[in-house]
Amino acid sequence: MIKFFLMVNKQGQTRLSKYYEHVDINKRTLLETEVIKSCLSRSNEQCSFIEYKDFKLIYRQYAALFIVVGVNDTENEMAIYEFIHNFVEVLDEYFSRVSELDVSFFNTVFHGTWQAHSSPYQVLVLALEDDPTSV
Amino acid sequence: MPAPIRLRELIRTIRTARTQAEEREMIQKECAAIRSSFREEDNTYRCRNVAKLLYMHMLGYPAHFGQLECLKLIASQKFTDKRIGYLGAMLLLDERQDVHLLMTNCIKNDLNHSTQFVQGLALCTLGCMGSSEMCRDLAGEVEKLLKTSNSYLRKKAALCAVHVIRKVPELMEMFLPATKNLLNEKNHGVLHTSVVLLTEMCERSPDMLAHFRKLVPQLVRILKNLIMSGYSPEHDVSGISDPFLQVRILRLLRILGRNDDDSSEAMNDILAQVATNTETSKNVGNAILYETVLTIMDIKSESGLRVLAINILGRFLLNNDKNIRYVALTSLLKTVQTDHNAVQRHRSTIVDCLKDLDVSIKRYAPSKRWHIDTIMRVLTTAGSYVRDDAVPNLIQLITNSVEMHAYTVQRLYKAILGDYSQQPLVQVAAWCIGEYGDLLVSGQCEEEEPIQVTEDEVLDILESVLISNMSTSVTRGYALTAIMKLSTRFTCTVNRIKKVVSIYGSSIDVELQQRAVEYNALFKKYDHMRSALLERMPVMEKVTTNGPTEIVQTNGETEPAPLETKPPPSGPQPTSQANDLLDLLGGNDITPVIPTAPTSKPSSAGGELLDLLGDINLTGAPAAAPAPASVPQISQPPFLLDGLSSQPLFNDIAAGIPSITAYSKNGLKIEFTFERSNTNPSVTVITIQASNSTELDMTDFVFQAAVPKTFQLQLLSPSSSIVPAFNTGTITQVIKVLNPQKQQLRMRIKLTYNHKGSAMQDLAEVNNFPPQSWQ
């Protein structure tokens, strides 16, 4: 089960965070900095799965942005790894060459329904339903 | 009041903040504006303000005053308002706030709304943060939506149902009728979420599990279609059709097939098919294969299938991708319990993986106990194939985990009771028994049931190791040393030990004979030193490399008591000295020095040991210095020299770098001689020699050095701390400098010593390094 989904840049600034279990607000920033610290200290040859406290972190780096998903033990790590990539591909489609700026500015688009790993097409449709320009 | 700024403006402004303080200021200003706007009950801009609030919340600032506003937004009729309102509710509210109950009515109305998107929003929010009361109230609505014809809604309803079941397990039966048709879907989204729902139900209730077993054929069919179907752009991910759904179905099959023969049989074919047909070139395929392997291992599959699974894992292990190897190792670990034989085949690959020091793979040892257990298992199964330095590594690990001593020694004792053919295992066991024999005999152990072992039994097993034909000379050495150590730990059997030791004094094996003779001498002449000598090994320094350098520390045990060689924590003293140096030098570009623990003592100790036992005819005298415990080192000769002497460390000495006089004042002269290694061109080894031309000795001589930031320095221990007068002798010390950027070598040195009754101290800078020493 996915516990949280983060997009954090190399400087430690959170661009997007979605928690599926309640975490206190002050603990959140702490969690995010610790997570990004452990991801940053990994070299290229090390694998993308880290064990952190009682969950597993699966991270992928895209340029200066780290996408980190925290899961519990029952998840298939490789499937999540693919999911992250899938997610990024969808964003790329939607924003035509998405960048970190897009993530910051179109925050509300991302808070869609992430509970299911639906097909890319469906996710795209979902994203298009929300019109970010109205805010 | 001017219109509040848009979210985008806010983001832009925050991005311009250069420091944390600036950002906080901006946010506080904006928060104040938002608060006053809320107080004015401004409907038009509420949506915008809450959106900004959510953004600030994400950055980590408190946003609780926005909760009521979210509710107001939810109650509004505009879709955009509702959207932000629900989003806010999902992010800001949870069951701990009382406010959330007010939402229940809103959600109920919205669940029956005419627009599917509004219904969708409501379902989402409920599925995200619904409390048990809310779930109870609204479960009926959710169930209704589960049966609608709108697939968009059905998908969301299924997920919401998952959440409801998690919160209120009693409501599971309510959803049962709706699930009948769930698997008949064409729409993958709905299919996916239905599978999730079914999985959740099966995990929670064994009755449901039994009930859903009949769905296995249907699941198999769906999976088959997925694999067989051609390219479908809608669901394609790198050439595989909807892998996420495949993984989910596999997981459900796993749960259904566990402990059930019929279902497992029904699945066998499809599992084999998935395992063979899936493309492994892309990571996606591997993800599916991983899930398949897990499933095969869990259900009652036939042996052919299991072998297939293990082979897949074996293939994973050989893959270059770290992720895949990690995943393979973790699953192999799970399967080793059940399917020992099949895993044996991949023994060598596994052991290779142990060499791989990826932190995750290393960190996968969640506890020291696990680590020890695993290595022990490797030793028992793979025995003779284990790397040479696995033994000392394990020994180091054991010494370091102080709390595990009793547990470890017990396990090892039990392991060799039955079978002492596995050499590395016996070596480790012998060493541990020697060290912690008293713990074994006293029968105290927290982790496992303590076994009653008498001293005689322990000696029996050690003796049989000695006698056995299967033991190599190395192992015998370990056993003899262990017996010797036990002479201090055990109380009743000392005579027996003496007898054993003296028997081997005339052994044919030179190594054994030498040890036995030395130990005999210990008994006879130096009995008073025996207990000090054979003390418990101190905790060794944690070494980051997997190299054998840590072995050197074991020499500590054989040095005579007068030489204070128990490696004292040399940490605190040097660091304070280093700090002093830093203060004095004041520059920002100097890095502190970290002298290592006294590793070079053995060379002088060896000499003294030789003196003590001088009247005995020792064969192979140089070997006496390293002492028995270092026998394993012989297999790695280049590193032997590392700790034994402070002399040139590299066999391949680059010839002809001129030495320099680094310092010459007040009769103290310090010369630097250089060596470069051909194997590592950025390392320079400097040997300093300090000589004293005055008429009085210089005592308590300490040499310290510091280098610019781009360099790294390692200072080994000096040969002594007295510089004798009239140049009659020198102090030698080795400095290793790592110069990866090949910059000009510079060094500041600080000397402190006592001379003519007063304490002297001096600082100097060394700039005359010859170019060959650093280029």
From TrEMBL, chain A:
Record GO biological process: protein transport
Domain annotation AP complex mu/sigma subunit: ranges: 1-106
Lipid bilayer topology: Peripheral membrane protein
Source organism, top-level taxon: Eukaryota
Recorded family membership: Belongs to the adaptor complexes small subunit family.
Subunit field text: Adaptor protein complex 4 (AP-4) is a heterotetramer composed of two large adaptins (epsilon-type subunit AP4E1 and beta-type subunit AP4B1), a medium adaptin (mu-type subunit AP4M1) and a small adaptin (sigma-type AP4S1).
Official protein name in the record: AP-4 complex subunit sigma-1
Source species: Papio anubis (Olive baboon)
UniProtKB/TrEMBL annotation, chain B:
A Gene Ontology term for the protein's cellular component: perinuclear region of cytoplasm
UniProt keyword annotations, A-Z: Coated pit, Cytoplasm, Cytoplasmic vesicle, Golgi apparatus, Membrane, Protein transport, Transport
Ranges where the record places region Disordered: 550-580
Top-level taxon of the source organism: Eukaryota
Main localization (coarse): cytoplasm
SUPFAM superfamilies: ARM repeat, Clathrin adaptor appendage domain
GAE domain residues: 655-770
Keyword flag Ligase: no
Annotated localization: Cytoplasm, Perinuclear region; Cytoplasmic vesicle, Clathrin-coated vesicle membrane; Golgi apparatus; Membrane, Clathrin-coated pit
GO biological process: intracellular protein transport; vesicle-mediated transport
One Pfam family from the record: Adaptin_N
Membrane topology: Peripheral membrane protein
PANTHER family: ADAPTIN, ALPHA/GAMMA/EPSILON (PTHR22780)
Family: Belongs to the adaptor complexes large subunit family.
Described function: Subunit of clathrin-associated adaptor protein complex 1 that plays a role in protein sorting in the late-Golgi/trans-Golgi network (TGN) and/or endosomes. The AP complexes mediate both the recruitment of clathrin to membranes and the recognition of sorting signals within the cytosolic tails of transmembrane cargo molecules.
Protein name: AP-1 complex subunit gamma
Organism from which the protein derives: Papio anubis (Olive baboon)
Encoding gene per record: AP1G1
